[in-house]
Specification:
This protein is of the alpha/beta class. Strand 2 and strand 3 form a beta hairpin. The chain is globular.
Length: 306
């Protein structure tokens, strides 16, 4: 609605209050334009055109950018899709930098590149929390994907356990950790089903000061286990309360699931983590502003206990 009002305004000055956490300091990632369900992005100078269902308008703010695309992701009517490389010189992999972190970008299935730039807000929050603790901190990163949050926690001085059911994603996370120069820091990588892993940690008596999770809407574990966020998120968070330390710092749930509201995630934390240790619960939407524009792309939600 905010974007539509920005596009409709002519000679009328309007003030809109935006309640959203914006990432506007990721210098090597920029949204150049958005129109007709597609976002035109620059990843350290490599321009990709990818679908995004939030872009419901057909107005182009910067039509001059659209003839410089290096690759386009085309959706299929049968599900999934494929990348079309326009620029034959586009490398199979390249790097982007955020502050002192370095990430490897690749064109992968289902339009992904291996990084969600809007999560820089959470990376910063995680780092600040670890540094302010002024003590050893153990972090558990579940559904850890390519490890951006793991890199942020390592860079702040924490010990990290990184768990994902995909061996390919865990190998990619190892690449990112090495690119950040953090390969000698204390991190364990595990290819595992997160629910089974948490149950084993309960039996082992292992505890964590910070737990992060970015669960998919639907997925399969390392041995074919089925994950459904609507049925499985609450029991998992409830299990995780048993591996929180006696003085926990942070519990973050990210979500890109359509229809799952921030209030639902807050309720989950309130009924689980907050019953073990009283803290503050908050939630918000994450967004990335478009370059040279007042438009903002909403990019998922999070809920946080601290």
């Amino acid at each position: 609605i905010v974007n539509v009002l920005f596009l409709l305004k002519k000679n009328v000055i309007i003030t809109l209050v935006i309640y959203m956490k914006l990432v506007n300091d990721f210098n090597e990632y920029q949204i150049l334009d958005m129109s007709e369900g597609m976002k035109l992005e620059s990843w350290n100078g490599k321009e990709l055109l990818r679908p995004d269902p939030q872009i419901i308008w057909n107005h182009k703010e910067h039509p001059e950018y659209w003839d410089k695309v290096d690759a386009i992701y085309h959706r299929s009517n049968k599900g999934g899709g494929h990348w079309e490389t326009i620029n034959p010189k586009l490398p199979a992999t390249w790097q982007v930098h955020y502050k002192d972190l370095t990430f490897n970008i690749k064109q992968m299935g289902f339009k992904h590149t291996g990084l969600f730039p809007e999560q820089a807000y959470n990376w910063n929050y995680i780092r600040e929390t670890i540094k302010k603790a002024n003590r050893p901190v153990k972090v558990l990163n579940l559904f850890a994907y390519t490890g951006a949050a793991s890199c942020a926690a390592l860079a702040a001085g924490a010990e990290v356990v990184h768990v994902d059911s995909s061996r390919g994603m865990v190998d990619w996370a190892k690449e990112n950790v090495a690119s950040c120069g953090l390969q000698d820091k204390p991190i364990r990588f595990l290819v595992d089903d997160v629910v089974k892993f948490v149950n084993r940690e309960i039996r082992r008596g292992n505890k964590y000061d910070i737990i992060l999770m970015d669960p998919p809407s639907f997925g399969r574990g390392a041995n074919g286990e089925v994950w459904d966020i609507e049925k499985d998120l609450y029991p998992l968070v409830e299990l995780c309360t048993q591996i929180l330390s006696d003085d926990p710092l942070l519990f973050i749930i990210n979500s890109y699931t359509t229809g799952l509201s921030m209030t639902v995630l807050e309720n989950v934390l309130n009924l689980t983590v907050n019953q073990k240790v009283k803290g503050t619960i908050s939630s918000d939407e994450l967004g990335v502003p478009m370059k040279d524009s007042e438009l903002i792309l909403p990019c998922g939600i999070y809920a946080r206990w601290e």
